[in-house]
Amino acid sequence: MKSLHVRDKGNPLSHVPIGEFLQQVEAIDPTTTKRILKLQKKYPSKTFGQIALEKGYVKDELARNYLSSKGFF
Hints:
- The protein has 4 helices and no strands.
- By secondary structure, the chain is mainly alpha-helical.
- It has a domain at 24-69.
- The chain is globular.
């Protein structure tokens, strides 16, 4: 897994959607992202991150780091 200090075209991490972030740090692959997005359409009340955590696609610590970068913690 790559470092959590990811930048996307000069934008800070806080501007990267969680699915893109998880791909950049190699926590999930594009196929998994598509799978999660499909589930998100089926369950619109759930966020991408919730589904990824519930299905065990990512570790809780990684999601916490992302949410922390967004200012939730």
